[in-house]
Specification:
2 copies of one chain form a homodimer. With about 200 residues, chain A is mainly alpha-helical. The first copy, chain A, has helices at about 5-10, 15-35, 40-50, 55-60, 65-70, 75-80, 85-105, 105-115, 120-145, 155-175, 180-195. Chain A has 2 domains: about 5-70, Homeodomain-like (Arc Repressor Mutant, subunit A); about 75-195, Tetracycline Repressor, domain 2, CATH 1.10.357.10. The longest helix of chain A is centred in the middle third of the chain and has 27 residues, at about 120-145. Chains A, B: It comes from Pseudonocardia adelaidensis. Chains A, B: Keywords: DNA-binding, Transcription, Transcription regulation.
């Protein structure tokens, strides 16, 4: 069990403990990607991270908490929507970022693990937080567009699902590459559809 | 190796061989759903199907062919789009059918297996055929709508991806139930968006 002092130093950025924790999380991502959430072993995490097994157990006595913290590391990558002032371009860029990210073996495997483990409360929490991070970024960008009168008031999470759903489908199937033309067509149809179906207030 | 006579009788519906084959395929679906494409064993298929192991090997000497034929069994379920004369209603029903199907543990596991196995040519072929079955059903229904002037000429596969992508995302995440209101909103936005962005000829 970790003492309060351990916990404090563990959170101090740049410290040795922080470095060990980062190594353990990176190793966990890699192993979950390879073997799934149920498949990876603490021994392997320690070996890959180059730390002693007790470091893994001491920092994460709970296996699911380790998985969740490892998964949440990649939230930042997916959570950003730029504001260039042009909504269409920013959403197209957002879709291209998602497509690129989904093409990475690690992220793809994590996606699969998340889908495969509906039953785990910890993983469900992680998935919720990942989606909330993305949804918050979408919301900020969409709110700006609404403020500027580019878009009527809209359910931003459905907007997010409508533009990112087809990207996931196309990339996850692996049947054809996802192109910028796809992203543009999707964003154009969804934005035009929302403008045409949302009542003006 | 199967003789020509065997192959012929195997395809005669209602025959004993056909029954054995159907049992083997059903058992394969169940085991692939549980253990993944790489995980299931011929011994287990035979045991679950209540047949001798040699029946499995004789009918499907190639493991991937067995998986593919088992996967393709569920194409029919997903490949139908009704024609009630009202395009919106038919597409909404189509999305509800997909959502219901994706909620089944077997289909969900098969989806995961398909996504996880981009590298297998046989599985890729099966996935292509499944999608082509669905796309063909969409195309027939959309062609009718275009003929009737309900819709401008449209890339029906992108239309299919745009309406079914969000369903997959929502159901596969398992974060919230997919409702008929979701299906209606998605179909309304996509149809309105296509009408607004497709040049009239």
């Amino acid at each position: 069990m970790a003492s309060t002092a351990d916990r404090t130093s563990a959170r101090r950025p740049g410290g040795r403990t922080a470095r060990v924790r980062a190594q353990i999380l990176a190793a966990t991502v890699e192993l979950v990607a390879r073997d799934g959430i149920a498949g990876f072993r603490y021994e392997e995490v320690a070996e890959l991270a180059g730390v002693h097994k007790t470091s893994v157990y001491r920092n994460w006595p709970d296996r699911e908490e380790l998985v969740v913290e490892a998964l949440l590391q990649y939230v930042d990558d997916l959570g950003a929507v730029a504001d260039t002032g042009e909504l269409r371009r920013d959403l197209v860029d957002f879709l291209m970022t998602i497509a690129e990210s989904l093409g990475k073996p690690t992220v793809r495997a994590l996606e699969l693990a998340t889908q495969a483990t509906h039953d785990s409360p910890a993983v469900r929490r992680a998935a919720t937080r990942i989606l909330e991070g993305r949804a918050a970024a979408m919301r900020r960008r969409v709110d700006l567009a609404i403020d500027r009168g580019e878009l009527p008031p809209v359910d931003y999470s459905l907007l997010g699902e409508m533009i990112s759903g087809p990207v996931h489908l196309i990339v996850n199937r692996g049947l054809r590459p996802f192109t910028r033309a796809d992203a543009e067509r999707i964003v154009d149809v969804v934005l035009a559809g929302i403008r045409a179906t949302t009542p003006h207030t």
